[in-house]
C-alpha cells in the first residue's frame, strides 16, 4: 500500500474516511518514489501488473496519479487493469477520526475505558468504528 503524506499523517492524526489531499511534500515524495520504483524493469513494472486496485480516497487517487507515468496509466486503463474500489478504503476510526493517540486515550478515560491498561488500537479497536 502506497499513499503520500497528508496534513494528518504529518502530525500523527488517525486518518480514515476523511478526504484529505496530499501535502506539497507528500506529492513530492510520491513523485520521487514513483521515479525510483515504477517503470519498465523497476520494482513495479506496469507491463507486468495483473491489476491495480485503488482506494476511492482522494489521497490514494492522487498517489496513483503521481507515481505512475501518463503512458503507464493509459496502458493500464486501456487494458482494464485499474479499478477504484471501496474494498480498499481506509479504516473507519469512528470517534477517533482526526485525533492524536493522546487525545484518544483521554477520550477513552472520560468514557470509563482502559482503567487497567492503556488503549491499544489492535486490541481495543475504535468506538463507533472498526
From TrEMBL:
* Domain of life of the organism encoding this protein: Eukaryota
SUPFAM superfamilies with a match to the protein in the record: Phosphoglycerate mutase-like
* UniProt GO BP: ribose phosphate biosynthetic process
Q: Where does substrate bind?
A: 15-16, 59, 90-93
The entry lists its GO molecular-function terms as: sedoheptulose-bisphosphatase activity
InterPro entries given in the database record: His_Pase_superF_clade-1, His_PPase_superfam, PGM_Phosphatase
| Entries under Pfam families matching the protein | His_Phos_1
Protein name per Swiss-Prot or TrEMBL: Phosphoglycerate mutase
Organism the protein comes from: Rasamsonia emersonii (strain ATCC 16479 / CBS 393.64 / IMI 116815)
Give the taxonomic lineage as stored in the record: Eukaryota, Fungi, Dikarya, Ascomycota, Pezizomycotina
Amino acid at each position: 500500500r502506497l499513499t503520500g503524506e497528508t496534513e494528518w499523517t504529518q502530525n500523527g492524526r488517525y486518518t480514515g474516511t476523511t478526504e484529505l489531499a496530499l501535502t506539497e511534500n507528500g506529492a513530492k515524495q510520491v513523485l520521487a518514489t514513483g521515479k525510483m520504483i515504477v517503470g519498465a524493469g523497476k520494482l513495479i513494472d506496469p507491463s507486468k501488473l495483473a491489476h491495480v486496485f485503488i482506494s476511492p480516497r482522494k489521497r490514494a487517487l492522487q498517489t496513483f496519479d503521481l507515481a505512475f507515468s501518463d503512458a503507464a496509466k493509459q496502458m493500464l486503463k486501456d487494458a482494464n487493469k485499474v479499478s477504484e474500489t471501496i474494498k480498499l478504503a481506509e479504516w473507519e476510526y469512528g470517534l477517533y477520526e482526526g485525533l492524536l493517540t493522546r487525545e484518544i486515550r483521554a477520550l477513552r478515560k472520560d468514557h470509563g475505558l482502559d482503567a487497567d491498561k492503556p488503549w491499544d488500537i489492535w486490541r481495543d479497536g475504535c468506538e463507533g468504528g472498526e
